[in-house]
Design goal:
The protein is of the alpha/beta class. It has twelve helices and eight strands. An eight-stranded parallel beta barrel has the order 1-2-3-4-5-6-7-8, surrounded by nine helices. Helix 5 runs parallel beside helix 6. The N and C termini lie far apart (about 45 Å).
Amino acid sequence: MVELSPGRQFRDALSSERPLQIAGAINAYSAMQAERAGFKAIYLSGAGVANASCGLPDLGATNLNDVLQDASRITAACALPLLVDIDTGWGSELCIQRAIRELERAGVAGVHLEDQISAKRCGHRPGKQLVDTQEMQARLRAAVAARRNSEFVIMARTDAVSVEGLESAIERAQAYAAVGADMIFAEAIETLEDFRRVCRSLDAPVLANMTEFGRTPAFNLDELRSVGVRMALYPLTAFRAMNAAAKLTYETIRQQGTQAAILDTLQTREQLYEVLDYHAAEQRMDERLDKQGERHG
């Protein structure tokens, strides 16, 4: 049987679910949990890499190696197709091409590349600045040319809605699709009608970023489906839940001198082992040790 490429797996998932729910996973174990929950695709956020792996704000402070390390660990542990945030591509067109090749080699299904300047900001914060359409097209051409497998997904993100307005965002998205972007990430859209207008203006599938506490309301799947959105992204929801749980845990232990009060909120050792298939791995180790003992006995 021919093994499907990660890009093909992502495209198949997109065809099987409308909208395709894409779960953010900041590390390999989170990805494994998302897979067990039934998701068909996962996502590595640039903000997640900056915040969780580096302890930095999402202000363009990370690089390809930071993202590549986290992405490689996820693809090694989880079979789901992984979409990766590569911000503005970390430099020149040569830098973008290197990023595509390295991430494709690491088993990533696709990336999204944005049209902010290199000193980028979170897509739901004020003060964003954009490169011109031609420069973003050059970024996308470099990305498309670099991929070895045409099924590897090149997604173009535009932040123009909150900077230049909806009409400009639509024009930019059309221009990005014209140079080979497979899909469009329309950031910080605030109404379903605006999503409808973006989706109707494009042949390419459109992603809606359902990040919390930002400019986009928490639309449900039925609402997104009704206006033509093809992907619903939850980039840092689990990470935020983990952070809140960790804060409570640390404060409880520090203040009470014991974790007894929160034991019923914790994942048990057996639940952890089940996800990791720990017992089977331990059994294989024991069998190897037994055989070694027989040889040396």
